Amino acid sequence: MNRRGDRITFKGTQDMLFDWRQKISPSDQHQKLKEALIKANLVELSDNFLKEVPKPEGNPNADRQEIRAPNRRITDKTIEADVVELRDYEFRLPTESLDGKVVGYLAFLPLSMPNSRKPVLNLVIYDNLPGFKKSLCEEMDAKGRISRDIERLFFIESSNHNSLEVSCSMDETDDDLRETLYFWDLHDFGRNVLDFTLDCNHLSTNDSNVKVTLTHGKRRRNSIFVVDMKGNATKTAWGDD
Asked: Could you tell me the residue range of the domain that residue 238 belongs to?
Protein backbone atom coordinates (compact mmCIF):
# COMPACT_ATOMS: atom_id res chain seq x y z
CA MET A 1 0.00 0.00 0.00
CA ASN A 2 1.30 3.41 -0.93
CA ARG A 3 1.74 5.87 1.89
CA ARG A 4 2.76 9.47 2.10
CA GLY A 5 6.49 9.57 1.60
CA ASP A 6 6.58 6.52 -0.68
CA ARG A 7 7.95 6.81 -4.16
CA ILE A 8 5.65 6.31 -7.13
CA THR A 9 6.26 6.62 -10.85
CA PHE A 10 3.52 8.32 -12.82
CA LYS A 11 3.07 8.30 -16.58
CA GLY A 12 1.04 10.67 -18.69
CA THR A 13 0.81 12.13 -22.15
CA GLN A 14 2.00 15.69 -22.25
CA ASP A 15 -0.35 16.81 -24.98
CA MET A 16 -3.25 15.99 -22.64
CA LEU A 17 -1.91 18.56 -20.22
CA PHE A 18 -2.62 21.43 -22.53
CA ASP A 19 -5.00 22.55 -25.23
CA TRP A 20 -4.82 19.61 -27.64
CA ARG A 21 -6.01 21.89 -30.46
CA GLN A 22 -2.61 23.54 -30.44
CA LYS A 23 0.26 21.98 -32.35
CA ILE A 24 3.45 22.52 -30.40
CA SER A 25 6.86 20.95 -30.61
CA PRO A 26 8.12 18.44 -28.00
CA SER A 27 10.55 21.02 -26.61
CA ASP A 28 7.71 23.53 -26.14
CA GLN A 29 5.60 20.81 -24.53
CA HIS A 30 8.39 20.13 -22.09
CA GLN A 31 8.67 23.81 -21.22
CA LYS A 32 4.93 24.06 -20.71
CA LEU A 33 5.01 20.95 -18.54
CA LYS A 34 7.62 22.55 -16.32
CA GLU A 35 5.60 25.75 -16.04
CA ALA A 36 2.45 23.77 -15.21
CA LEU A 37 4.27 21.86 -12.50
CA ILE A 38 5.52 25.10 -11.01
CA LYS A 39 1.99 26.53 -10.99
CA ALA A 40 0.74 23.35 -9.34
CA ASN A 41 3.39 23.78 -6.61
CA LEU A 42 4.92 20.41 -7.45
CA VAL A 43 8.25 22.06 -8.12
CA GLU A 44 9.57 25.44 -7.09
CA LEU A 45 11.18 27.94 -9.40
CA SER A 46 14.56 28.37 -7.76
CA ASP A 47 18.12 28.15 -9.07
CA ASN A 48 19.01 25.94 -6.13
CA PHE A 49 15.89 23.81 -6.30
CA LEU A 50 15.06 23.36 -9.97
CA LYS A 51 17.69 22.71 -12.61
CA GLU A 52 17.57 21.65 -16.22
CA VAL A 53 20.11 18.95 -16.93
CA PRO A 54 22.11 19.68 -20.12
CA LYS A 55 22.58 17.10 -22.83
CA PRO A 56 25.29 14.58 -21.97
CA GLU A 57 28.63 15.54 -23.42
CA GLY A 58 29.75 13.37 -26.29
CA ASN A 59 26.22 12.32 -27.18
CA PRO A 60 25.01 14.54 -30.04
CA ASN A 61 21.87 12.43 -30.44
CA ALA A 62 20.62 13.20 -26.96
CA ASP A 63 17.52 15.37 -27.23
CA ARG A 64 15.74 14.79 -23.92
CA GLN A 65 16.24 17.11 -21.01
CA GLU A 66 15.22 16.34 -17.49
CA ILE A 67 14.00 18.61 -14.73
CA ARG A 68 15.48 17.62 -11.41
CA ALA A 69 14.38 18.61 -7.94
CA PRO A 70 14.72 16.94 -4.54
CA ASN A 71 12.61 13.75 -4.51
CA ARG A 72 11.29 14.44 -8.00
CA ARG A 73 12.42 13.42 -11.47
CA ILE A 74 10.53 14.63 -14.52
CA THR A 75 11.21 13.58 -18.11
CA ASP A 76 9.21 14.02 -21.28
CA LYS A 77 6.98 11.02 -20.52
CA THR A 78 7.38 10.18 -16.84
CA ILE A 79 7.04 11.93 -13.51
CA GLU A 80 8.66 10.23 -10.55
CA ALA A 81 7.85 11.85 -7.24
CA ASP A 82 7.30 11.27 -3.58
CA VAL A 83 3.69 10.90 -2.62
CA VAL A 84 2.46 14.35 -1.70
CA GLU A 85 -1.26 13.74 -2.14
CA LEU A 86 -3.21 10.51 -2.20
CA ARG A 87 -6.91 10.43 -3.00
CA ASP A 88 -8.06 6.87 -3.45
CA TYR A 89 -4.61 5.98 -4.76
CA GLU A 90 -4.70 8.70 -7.36
CA PHE A 91 -2.31 11.59 -7.89
CA ARG A 92 -3.75 14.64 -9.62
CA LEU A 93 -2.14 17.53 -11.40
CA PRO A 94 -4.26 20.53 -12.42
CA THR A 95 -2.89 22.31 -15.45
CA GLU A 96 -3.32 25.66 -17.10
CA SER A 97 -2.37 27.19 -20.40
CA LEU A 98 0.05 30.08 -20.32
CA ASP A 99 -2.75 32.64 -20.49
CA GLY A 100 -4.20 31.26 -17.25
CA LYS A 101 -7.21 29.50 -18.74
CA VAL A 102 -7.78 26.04 -17.35
CA VAL A 103 -7.85 23.64 -20.28
CA GLY A 104 -7.44 20.22 -18.74
CA TYR A 105 -7.04 18.08 -15.67
CA LEU A 106 -4.88 15.00 -15.96
CA ALA A 107 -4.38 12.23 -13.44
CA PHE A 108 -0.93 10.68 -13.43
CA LEU A 109 -1.62 7.10 -12.44
CA PRO A 110 0.68 4.72 -10.55
CA LEU A 111 1.99 1.86 -12.65
CA SER A 112 0.43 -0.54 -10.17
CA MET A 113 -2.18 -0.20 -7.47
CA PRO A 114 -2.76 -2.06 -4.21
CA ASN A 115 -5.45 -4.71 -3.91
CA SER A 116 -6.08 -4.01 -0.24
CA ARG A 117 -9.43 -2.30 -0.85
CA LYS A 118 -12.19 -2.17 -3.40
CA PRO A 119 -11.59 0.13 -6.34
CA VAL A 120 -12.75 3.66 -6.80
CA LEU A 121 -13.77 4.49 -10.36
CA ASN A 122 -13.04 8.06 -11.39
CA LEU A 123 -14.58 9.76 -14.38
CA VAL A 124 -13.16 13.02 -15.65
CA ILE A 125 -14.78 15.14 -18.33
CA TYR A 126 -12.44 17.54 -20.09
CA ASP A 127 -13.37 20.74 -21.83
CA ASN A 128 -12.86 20.27 -25.55
CA LEU A 129 -14.91 23.03 -27.14
CA PRO A 130 -17.49 22.88 -28.58
CA GLY A 131 -18.13 19.74 -26.55
CA PHE A 132 -16.60 17.65 -23.81
CA LYS A 133 -13.80 15.16 -24.02
CA LYS A 134 -14.42 12.24 -21.71
CA SER A 135 -11.79 9.90 -20.40
CA LEU A 136 -12.10 7.15 -17.85
CA CYS A 137 -9.06 7.77 -15.73
CA GLU A 138 -8.80 4.80 -13.46
CA GLU A 139 -9.40 1.11 -13.91
CA MET A 140 -7.70 -1.98 -12.55
CA ASP A 141 -7.39 -5.32 -14.25
CA ALA A 142 -7.46 -8.62 -12.39
CA LYS A 143 -3.83 -8.21 -11.32
CA GLY A 144 -4.41 -4.80 -9.82
CA ARG A 145 -2.57 -2.96 -12.58
CA ILE A 146 -3.85 -0.07 -14.62
CA SER A 147 -5.40 -1.06 -17.90
CA ARG A 148 -3.86 1.12 -20.60
CA ASP A 149 -6.69 0.61 -23.13
CA ILE A 150 -9.48 2.29 -21.23
CA GLU A 151 -9.71 5.70 -22.87
CA ARG A 152 -12.95 6.41 -24.69
CA LEU A 153 -13.79 9.71 -26.35
CA PHE A 154 -17.12 11.25 -27.15
CA PHE A 155 -18.58 14.71 -27.44
CA ILE A 156 -21.68 16.33 -25.99
CA GLU A 157 -22.49 19.38 -28.06
CA SER A 158 -23.77 21.84 -25.50
CA SER A 159 -23.01 25.28 -24.19
CA ASN A 160 -25.41 24.85 -21.27
CA HIS A 161 -23.32 22.80 -18.88
CA ASN A 162 -26.01 22.70 -16.22
CA SER A 163 -28.03 20.42 -18.47
CA LEU A 164 -25.36 17.73 -18.37
CA GLU A 165 -26.47 14.88 -16.13
CA VAL A 166 -24.28 12.14 -14.74
CA SER A 167 -25.93 9.20 -13.03
CA CYS A 168 -24.28 6.30 -11.24
CA SER A 169 -26.06 3.13 -10.25
CA MET A 170 -24.81 0.04 -8.48
CA ASP A 171 -27.39 -2.18 -10.10
CA GLU A 172 -29.40 -1.47 -13.23
CA THR A 173 -32.59 -2.87 -11.71
CA ASP A 174 -32.40 -1.33 -8.25
CA ASP A 175 -33.51 2.30 -8.27
CA ASP A 176 -32.73 2.63 -4.56
CA LEU A 177 -29.03 2.43 -5.35
CA ARG A 178 -29.17 4.96 -8.17
CA GLU A 179 -27.50 8.31 -7.63
CA THR A 180 -27.76 11.23 -10.03
CA LEU A 181 -25.06 13.88 -9.97
CA TYR A 182 -25.80 17.18 -11.65
CA PHE A 183 -23.19 19.68 -12.73
CA TRP A 184 -23.27 21.68 -9.52
CA ASP A 185 -22.88 18.54 -7.40
CA LEU A 186 -19.70 17.44 -9.11
CA HIS A 187 -16.19 18.24 -7.98
CA ASP A 188 -15.34 21.25 -10.10
CA PHE A 189 -11.62 21.81 -10.68
CA GLY A 190 -12.00 24.56 -13.23
CA ARG A 191 -14.28 26.03 -15.79
CA ASN A 192 -15.77 23.28 -17.94
CA VAL A 193 -13.81 20.59 -16.08
CA LEU A 194 -15.95 18.10 -14.19
CA ASP A 195 -14.98 15.26 -11.93
CA PHE A 196 -16.88 12.82 -9.80
CA THR A 197 -15.92 9.70 -7.88
CA LEU A 198 -17.94 6.52 -7.58
CA ASP A 199 -16.84 4.69 -4.45
CA CYS A 200 -17.57 0.96 -4.55
CA ASN A 201 -16.69 0.22 -0.93
CA HIS A 202 -20.30 -0.17 0.17
CA LEU A 203 -21.06 -2.97 -2.28
CA SER A 204 -22.31 -6.01 -0.41
CA THR A 205 -22.68 -8.58 -3.19
CA ASN A 206 -19.98 -10.71 -4.71
CA ASP A 207 -20.73 -9.48 -8.20
CA SER A 208 -22.36 -6.13 -8.86
CA ASN A 209 -22.81 -4.00 -11.93
CA VAL A 210 -21.59 -0.44 -11.71
CA LYS A 211 -23.17 1.64 -14.45
CA VAL A 212 -22.00 5.15 -15.25
CA THR A 213 -24.31 7.10 -17.55
CA LEU A 214 -23.79 10.54 -19.04
CA THR A 215 -26.92 12.09 -20.50
CA HIS A 216 -27.54 15.29 -22.40
CA GLY A 217 -30.95 15.56 -24.02
CA LYS A 218 -31.53 12.37 -25.95
CA ARG A 219 -27.86 11.46 -26.13
CA ARG A 220 -26.59 8.93 -23.63
CA ARG A 221 -23.42 6.97 -23.08
CA ASN A 222 -23.07 4.09 -20.65
CA SER A 223 -20.05 2.40 -19.17
CA ILE A 224 -20.75 -0.78 -17.22
CA PHE A 225 -18.28 -2.36 -14.83
CA VAL A 226 -18.27 -5.63 -12.96
CA VAL A 227 -16.88 -5.17 -9.46
CA ASP A 228 -16.09 -8.05 -7.14
CA MET A 229 -15.26 -8.09 -3.44
CA LYS A 230 -11.56 -8.69 -4.12
CA GLY A 231 -11.15 -5.15 -5.38
CA ASN A 232 -10.94 -5.92 -9.08
CA ALA A 233 -12.74 -3.90 -11.72
CA THR A 234 -13.09 -4.79 -15.37
CA LYS A 235 -15.05 -2.94 -18.00
CA THR A 236 -17.61 -5.21 -19.63
CA ALA A 237 -19.56 -2.93 -21.94
CA TRP A 238 -19.48 0.48 -23.49
CA GLY A 239 -22.03 1.90 -25.87
CA ASP A 240 -24.96 4.14 -26.64
CA ASP A 241 -28.51 3.57 -25.51
From this structure: 113-241
Q: Taking the alpha carbons of 101, 109, 115, 144 in that order, is the dihedral positive or negative?
A: positive
| Structural domain count of the chain | 2
- Pick the closest to residue 210 from 181, 235, 175 (CA basis): 235
At 149-179, the pLDDT tens digits run 332 222 233 333 444 455 544 444 444 444 4
Listing DSSP states for 82-109 in one string gives E----SSS-EEEEEE-TTS-EEEEEEEE
For residue 196, list its beta bridge partners. Answer: 123
Task: Mark whether 147 and 225 lie in a shared domain.
Answer: yes
220-230: pLDDT as tens digits: 555 544 443 33
Clarify whether residues 52 and 160 are in a common domain.
Answer: no
Q: ∠ at Cα 150 (147, 154), nearest 5°? A: 170
**49: number of CA atoms within 13 Å, CB side?**
7
| Separation of alpha carbons 193 and 161, rounded Å | 10
Considering the domain architecture, whether residues 124 and 202 belong to the same structural domain is answered as yes
Residues 119 and 107 in one domain: no
Largest CA distance in the chain: 67
Same domain, 138 and 100: no
Q: Are residues 67 and 168 in the same domain?
A: no
pTM of this prediction exceeds 0.85: no
Model pLDDT for residues 20-78, shown as the tens digit of each residue? 223 334 445 445 545 544 444 433 333 222 333 344 455 544 443 333 333 444 444 44
